[in-house]
Design a protein that fits this description.
It comes from Paenibacillus puldeungensis. InterPro entries: HEPN_Cthe2314. This is Cthe_2314 family HEPN domain-containing protein. The chain is mainly alpha-helical and about 240 residues long. It has 9 helices and no strands. It has one domain (about 1-239). It has helices at about 1-5, 15-40, 45-75, 85-120, 135-145, 150-160, 160-180, 180-195, 205-239. The chain is elongated and about 70 Å long. The N and C termini lie far apart (about 45 Å).
Length: about 240
């Protein structure tokens, strides 16, 4: 959608994104088959099917935010806010919008996945915390000693992206609970420069952190749905 608005060609899924989408769509087909065979009187399969479609949308939206943030970042060439033209200020504002939307969506996408994991694998996370995050769900695998193959792989992914996730989490918390994250950067720059011009934060570093967050979400989604599909097929073959 955003590519079309920006006059760019449609996204072509490739690499891990394509593999992840394939795995998730395979899950929806498995759920549809179960609904057809057993009529799903409790609507549990239908609920999981709807949730999976929601996760597909969440991943696409995160990828589009990363694309749009990168697109507008590339239109900012000035180092100081005061030196920007009117058009460049607008492009910088658009970059900030999509960058912030992106790092918020990283954790939103993970928390939505946590809800699905909790349901599919009966992790009873609400007994630990009424309003739980993906990371609380993740700890349940170790605590309950269930599905170690999946739990250990998800922990490894979290550790691989720990640094970028830490940066994004701090910016997300600042944005949601305190003040706009770019205002924090401006305050720091003002403190450093006193009455001088405010130099922009390192936009390339911010984009790299957001890209790492997106890659972490993509890897996590793929791992969950690849494992779920393999387990489902195995259980079906045994029944």
């Amino acid at each position: 959608m955003l590519r079309s608005l920006l006059g760019e060609p449609p996204r072509q899924n490739e690499g891990r994104l394509a593999e992840t989408m394939d795995a998730m769509e395979q899950t929806t087909r498995l759920l549809e088959k179960e609904i057809e065979l057993h009529q799903d009187p409790t609507h549990d399969y239908r609920k999981l099917e709807i949730w999976t479609h929601g996760l597909i949308s969440s991943l696409y939206e995160l990828e589009e935010c990363l694309f749009a943030a990168t697109y507008f970042r590339n239109k900012v060439t000035t180092d100081y806010v005061e030196d920007m033209s009117h058009e460049e200020r607008n492009n910088y504002a658009r970059y900030v919008y999509f960058y912030k939307d992106g790092f918020i969506r990283v954790f939103s996408a993970l928390d939505k996945l946590g809800t699905v994991l909790n349901e599919v694998y009966n992790l009873h996370t609400s007994k630990v915390k009424a309003r739980f995050s993906y990371f609380t769900v993740l700890r349940q695998f170790s605590y309950l000693k269930v599905h170690p193959e999946l739990g250990n792989r998800l922990i490894a992914i979290k550790e691989e992206y720990r640094e970028a996730l830490g940066v994004l989490r701090r910016r997300r918390n600042t944005e949601i609970h305190y003040m706009n994250s770019e205002m924090r950067d401006d305050l720091w720059q003002r403190h450093q420069a006193l009455f001088g011009k405010i130099e922009l934060e390192d936009l390339d570093v911010h984009i790299r952190d957001l890209e790492q967050g997106y890659r972490m979400v993509c890897e996590t989604y793929f791992t969950v749905f690849d494992y779920t599909n393999r387990r489902w097929k195995k259980l079906t073959a045994q029944s």
